[in-house]
Amino acid sequence: MHELRIATDLVDMIEGYAAEAGLGAVHRVNVSFGQFIQIVPDLFETAFREAAAGTVAAGAEVDIEIIAAEMRCPGCGSQYIPSEDLKGCSVCGSSEIDIVHGKELFIKSIEGE
Ligand SMILES: [Zn+2]
User: Fold this and answer.
1) What is the pTM of this model?
2) In this structure, which residues have their CB less than 5 angstroms from ion ligand 1?
């Protein structure tokens, strides 16, 4: 399961951050996912609870922010929000596209004591 693998990686990172900050328990975790990561929030929360069991993040609440996809054409420099049927740049037609936003996967912050 996609979500469980990501949740396990994030719990590893949270344990590192908590240790650095001297936190004995993490109560809340704020995470950001790009649209292309295709996280299902409900599945992620379930996976996170499973991955966090027995760690400092056990029982922590998860707040998920989804970052909308945004593309940029390296050819003409136009920046746009991709639509389902768009295969290339809407301005010059180039099929070479850079992803500006949408592949994010990070922890914004953690709260604990
Ligand atoms: Zn273009």
Assistant:
1) 0.84
2) 73, 75-76, 89, 91-92, 94
